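User: Predict the complex.
Assistant: Input components as received:
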Amino acid sequence: MSPRTEKQFEEIRLSKKALIQEVALELFAKKGYHSTSISMIAKKAGISKGLLYNYYESKEDLLNEIITQGMNQAMQMMDPNQDGQVTRDEMAFMINESFEILQTHSRFWILYFSLLPQAEVFEIVKDKFYSIYKLMISMLTDYFKKRGSDDPEAEAIILGSLLDGIYINYIFNPELFPLEAVKKKLIDIYCKK
Amino acid sequence: MSPRTEKQFEEIRLSKKALIQEVALELFAKKGYHSTSISMIAKKAGISKGLLYNYYESKEDLLNEIITQGMNQAMQMMDPNQDGQVTRDEMAFMINESFEILQTHSRFWILYFSLLPQAEVFEIVKDKFYSIYKLMISMLTDYFKKRGSDDPEAEAIILGSLLDGIYINYIFNPELFPLEAVKKKLIDIYCKK
Amino acid sequence: MSPRTEKQFEEIRLSKKALIQEVALELFAKKGYHSTSISMIAKKAGISKGLLYNYYESKEDLLNEIITQGMNQAMQMMDPNQDGQVTRDEMAFMINESFEILQTHSRFWILYFSLLPQAEVFEIVKDKFYSIYKLMISMLTDYFKKRGSDDPEAEAIILGSLLDGIYINYIFNPELFPLEAVKKKLIDIYCKK
Amino acid sequence: MSPRTEKQFEEIRLSKKALIQEVALELFAKKGYHSTSISMIAKKAGISKGLLYNYYESKEDLLNEIITQGMNQAMQMMDPNQDGQVTRDEMAFMINESFEILQTHSRFWILYFSLLPQAEVFEIVKDKFYSIYKLMISMLTDYFKKRGSDDPEAEAIILGSLLDGIYINYIFNPELFPLEAVKKKLIDIYCKK
DNA sequence: GATGAATGAGCGTTCATTCAT
DNA sequence: GATGAATGAACGCTCATTCAT
């Protein structure tokens, strides 16, 4: 009789958007952005192609929202306690935390690393990515400075690269990569007294 | 004009194939595999689309040959002198050599890293890649063992990951990444007495 | 609040229908029938797409009603005083009147002339249009007969065509067409003693 | 064995393009530009949709070429003998000629008049159209001046509009419009001594 | 009366691949 | 060996229309 309330519609919208995003993230990560068609996403989500366009303006818009949201989550989690101090424990925490994020959001990071080489598409998230990257490097630089390194920034960049390398190796071969051993060694190297 | 000999035909074939491969590698690296069409490759190589199919069974076949050949080259270059010894100088040489390869074959490695996330495509070169990877890790392990490391394999894997991380950072942001400084620091860390 | 009476509902219906028609006419005229979507109409009218289908069976039905109503209005306005006489003054009045209608209902006539070439759509209003057309031609013929023309019908048809030509030129290039000058000349030609 | 010669390919291309253009003009004129799909054109031309895009970049490009070519033809035919004189005979010739063009290229003119109301699409041919229009108006003005008209330009515009009106009435109702009678009357009015 | 989520057929377009020459 | 016309399946996307609420 009477139409659904605004709130009911809102709920439908939100849950459908979330469903689409989830399915899209899964497929984008598994098959790559270009190899995933809108039809596949719609079929897997159990909806019509048309409906998808009720929620997202375009395939690129869908990608955009997925990446932005993922980056924001990562940003939040990576955010330090802001006291200007990076203690040894905080470094250990940060390393652990980043591996945690990597594992719980593995599909997002697979997607992320798969987009990195695609200049046109990467453009979208470049800024957000560099914010995180710079924040991390500056924190690491700060840390190495306090430890008396004679070239703290180079060491920071090296640790940053090392983490990237580990992430990539782990993400694309999780069953072969000895993540725990590597993590332990890492903390051993970088957090020893 | 005498008719071309068998051998001359063979040469034409080989040079055409090489030309096509070169052009394809350039475009795949610059625009990505999916965004490069057969038409573009043919046009840039100055041949017809039809002729391309005289040399390659399909677009995927073309990709395969490019990747396989690139991997073989890398394999050859990475091959040590097999004397079972990895001296400090050899380690320095290896690091230098790998950066050399990265830069002289940058287009291949851009392509490589861009395909890595696409499981179906990566399948093709998986085996070859692991051969190289294991060879490298075993050499590094050997090296760290001789230096008295208490977990030489973990250290080897970490160095391997670090190199991957550096490669990726350099390859997708060559103008921002301080390659030389990092290389120097690397040799400093891993080749000091 | 007492429940709305039957009459009140009827009023709501009529005013909503009128609103939809007005908005649709505006958009059809500005953007063309095919380039105007139901969504646009609904949004601009401030109602839901669903409600529109409560009033009109289809997009075509909506178009039909707009055209039919516009034609009826034109018919009414064009209706002479039926005394069988077309005086010089009445001719001047008619010419003036037709330009008046053209300007006050310009959106309708833009739509009309834009649909004219689409046979299927024109079919709808063909009959109504011919009624008006024949009425006008017969009046003009009558007028030229009284003025002693030796081929009054041909002259009537020519004047009819001339008016059409002027209308079209004015409607699709209002800022470039010297309507007033042309109107004056027209009256000068056809209403001189 | 050997591939077709350049000339053979050229012939194929030209005849296919002509076929597509012919079919497209027919359908655009009969059903309207927006209501004619690429599929329809391809089916009617007996080719695949893909092939059409071998010859035309887009649907709009196809329309563009049709219109441009038609306008060029009209321009050529309308071109006066350039002696700066428009005699009575030339005026009669011009009127006759324009009716000739109208009839032999009726489909083109149907298309033309159907695009006129569609601002976005008309934009394409606006310039070409105004060239012709201005040329015609200036010739007519010239003619009326020589005949001693006190407002030659207004008369020219009126004659231009009259022709437009006649064209439209004839084109969209060829069986009802007394073209010959009207033409005769026209020449009678405008070419009498 | 009123909503907007949902559908599905169709749109214009691209492109790897085939094949007659 | 070499050509490019030709295909057809799939793409991203739009939109009139339906329907549960």
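Residues 1-4, 8, 37-39, 49-50, 53, 58-59 of chain A lie near DNA strand F (CB under 10 Å from a C1').
Let me know if you want any component modeled separately.
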